[in-house]
Amino acid sequence: MRGVRTKDLCYQYASSGFSLQNINIEIDEGEFVLVTGASGCGKSTLAYCLSGVIPHCIKSGEMRGEVVVNGKNTRDVELNKLVKDVGIVLQNPESQIFGTTIEEDIAFGLENLCLSPNVIRDKVNEVLTFIGLEKVRGKNPYQLSGGEKQKLVIGSVLAMDPSILVLDEPVSNLDSFGAEVVLSTLVSLKNVGKTIVLIERRIEKVVSFVDRIIALDSGKVVADMSPRSFFKNRKLVEKLDVNPPQVVRLVYRLEESGVKMDDVPLTVEEFVRGLNGPYNKN
Hints:
This protein has 2 domains: 3-244, P-loop containing nucleotide triphosphate hydrolases (Rossmann fold, 3-Layer(aba) Sandwich), CATH 3.40.50.300; 245-282, no CATH class. The chain has 11 helices and 11 strands. It has helices at 43-51, 53-56, 79-82, 102-112, 117-131, 146-158, 176-191, 227-232, 234-239, 246-256, 268-276; strands at 3-12, 18-23, 26-28, 32-36, 62-69, 72-73, 86-89, 164-168, 195-199, 212-217, 220-225. The longest helix has 16 residues, at 176-191. The chain starts with a strand and ends in a 6-residue tail after the last helix.
C-alpha cells in the first residue's frame, strides 16, 4: 500500500503520560490531509511518528502499535532509508538549514546519499526551479525571508524525492506573506501528486484545498472527515479550540441570527454563491 497507515499507535514520553492513544488512520497516496487540534493535543508527536523521527531519533519514550509508510514498518527501516519515502519539515526552518548557500543546502542530503556529482547537480537544478529560488542559488540562506527559508527547507526535503511530506506547523512563525509563500508551494506539491500531511492550527488559507481534516484531542482522533463536514460540527470545532476561517465564523454568526445555509462555505466566493442561491434558507 502506498501512503501512510497507523495501527493502534500509542506513544508515551518518559516524563509524562500518553501523548498519543490508539491512533488508527489511513492516508492514501496523493492525499492532502490537515491534522489539527489545540496545543498539546499530540500533533507534533504524530508528525514525528509518521516520519520515523520516533522511534529512531527520539528514543526517550515508549511507542506501541505501528506506522507503515509505503508498505514499510518504520520500526524496521533505518531513518536514512525512510527519507526516500517520507520527509519532515519542522516548525523552525533554521533548525534544518545546513549549507552556506541555498545551492549547498539543497545538495546536503543528496551528498549524504553518496550520489554522483552529475545526479546531484541535476536534482539541485530541478528543485531550485520548482521552489522558485534558482536565481538566488548562491545566496546565504540566512539572508532569506521567513517564508523563503521554509521553502528552502521544503526543497531540501524534496531533493530526496520522498512521495510523502509531513510538515509540522510550517507557517506558525511566519507573517501572512510568508505563510502564503509556503502554502502556495504545498498546493504545487499536491498538484504533482505528493502525499502531504500538514500539522497546523492556522488553517484559514489551507482548508479550501485539503482533502480531509483529522482532529486530535488529548492524543486521540476525534474527527476524520472532509473540511466542510468538519466545520458543520460547530460544537466540535469550538471544543477543539480550532480557529475556523473568517467565512465560517461569519456563517456561525448568521446562524445565530436565523440565517441558515445547507452547506458551510469554505471561501468567500462560495459564501456569496450561497447567499444568492438555494443555500439561503432565511
